[in-house]
Design goal:
With 385 residues, the protein is of the alpha/beta class. The chain has a single domain, classed as TIM Barrel, CATH 3.20.20. It is built from 15 helices and 10 strands. It has a 10-stranded mixed beta sheet. Helix 4 (108-116) packs across helix 6 (142-155). The longest helix is centred in the middle third of the chain and has 18 residues, at 209-226. The protein is globular. The two termini are 36 Å apart.
Length: 385
């Protein structure tokens, strides 16, 4: 049995009994910054955000469903006055709890409080290897605050992680970002800029397919050199037919210890997203459509009975290049990209570089949104379809 046959077999074993191991919990829409490219247009809180009691009830709900990793995000989670209380509550019920922050408010006292609450890691956003690049998006003085936050995080023995959103503005700084992360003892997570929120319409900042390919190859090589746990990135496309490279492709997922097979996009197989209102969504990128609300339904029930999740787990439903691709069981493309550019959540991922001509690798003419309004209740839509 060859590598691709094995991946197909393992994929169907994984989706036979999927478990919601990872949940991203956007605890508030509020933020103390107004980043120019913020994907969720964070700023003021929603009027109907979860209370402390409701958030705790949802954390219990997640724990009952078997969630092993919970990551608090936003907005900016540290602006909630009860974030330490919620983090402490969660860490007593869920194996691994993390916080994703812009780092602006993490001083030595807050770092100590976060660590004392039982949080395992803190991820801070850094948009470039120098002050000018980072501050151009996030505001004057933010770069220095993030660097100080990294030091404070390290001082209290928390795992430090850096989230680097890569675009045309900072693509050439990737090697320096890898070095910077190593300097501060942090792992580096690379995610690609996506034109939503305050970044909507800025499609010219999206990487070309060639840049995506070269970026992923550099990250694979770096994983080989310094270890898979030190470098992570959201797209797990295989870059060659070489089995060693194929193995490295999955190491980011496998090295965490949460799962034993890399499936590309985790949505509906290992992970889900919860909004500040308690709504369950496929992922943060597909923020418009909900598949239930944890204020009145259990995650276990949604996870088991959701029609849209059943369809998302079936890679045979993919169309276009993704539907024909031999690597669909360990990749599957990005459903956010498919929806945004094709208007169909099951369409091919148009940003994928595999099988493209040299001309297509550089061509960005298809980087135009064909997005149609995503049904506010995806569960209703899936039941009708």
């Amino acid at each position: 049995m060859n590598f691709l046959d094995i991946t197909k077999k393992k994929y169907y074993e994984a989706v036979k009994n999927p478990t919601p191991l990872i949940v991203g919990f956007s605890i508030t829409q509020a933020c103390n910054l107004r980043c120019k490219l913020c994907g969720v247009s964070a700023g003021e809180p929603f009027s109907d955000e979860l209370t402390t009691a409701e958030a705790k009830s949802i954390i219990d709900n997640l724990s009952d469903a078997g969630v092993l990793h919970l990551s608090f995000g936003g907005g900016e989670p540290t602006v909630r006055k009860d974030i330490i209380q919620l983090a402490s509550f969660a860490s007593r019920r869920i194996e691994s709890v993390g916080i994703v922050s812009n780092g602006f408010s993490i001083d030595s006292q807050m770092a100590w409080e976060i660590a004392n609450a039982g949080v395992k890691h803190v991820m801070v956003s850094l948009d470039g290897s120098d002050q000018k690049t980072h501050d151009a998006n996030r505001g004057r003085g933010s770069y220095d605050r993030v660097i100080k936050a990294l030091k404070h995080i390290k001082d209290v023995q928390l795992q430090a992680r850096i989230s680097f959103t890569i675009s045309q503005t900072n693509y050439n700084q990737l090697p320096e970002m890898i070095e910077l992360a190593q300097k501060y003892g942090a792992s580096l997570n690379v995610q690609e800029f996506f034109p939503k929120g305050r970044g909507e319409g800025k499609n010219s900042l999206i990487l070309t397919r060639k840049q995506r390919r070269d970026m992923q190859r550099l990250l694979f090589e770096t994983q080989n050199r310094i270890g898979a746990r030190r470098i992570g990135f959201e797209n797990r496309y295989i870059t060659s037919e070489d089995k060693k490279t194929q193995k490295v492709c999955c190491n980011t997922a496998l090295s965490s210890g949460f799962y034993d097979f890399c499936v590309g996009c985790f949505t509906g197989i290992y992970s889900l997203f919860v909004s500040p209102k308690g709504e369950v969504r496929l992922c943060g990128g597909l923020g418009e459509g909900k598949i239930g609300n944890l204020k009145n339904k259990s995650l276990a029930d949604i996870w088991k009975n959701s029609e849209i999740l059943k369809k998302i787990r079936d890679r045979e439903k993919l169309t276009g290049r993704c539907g024909k691709c031999a690597y669909r069981y360990i990749c599957g493309g990005c459903r956010k990209n498919a929806y945004y550019f094709k208007g169909d959540i099951f369409a091919e991922d148009p940003l994928c570089w595999r099988g493209r001509t040299e001309e297509e690798l550089e061509d960005t003419s298809s980087y135009t949104s064909n997005k149609i309004p995503l049904c506010k209740d995806l569960e209703q839509a899936a039941a009708i379809a």
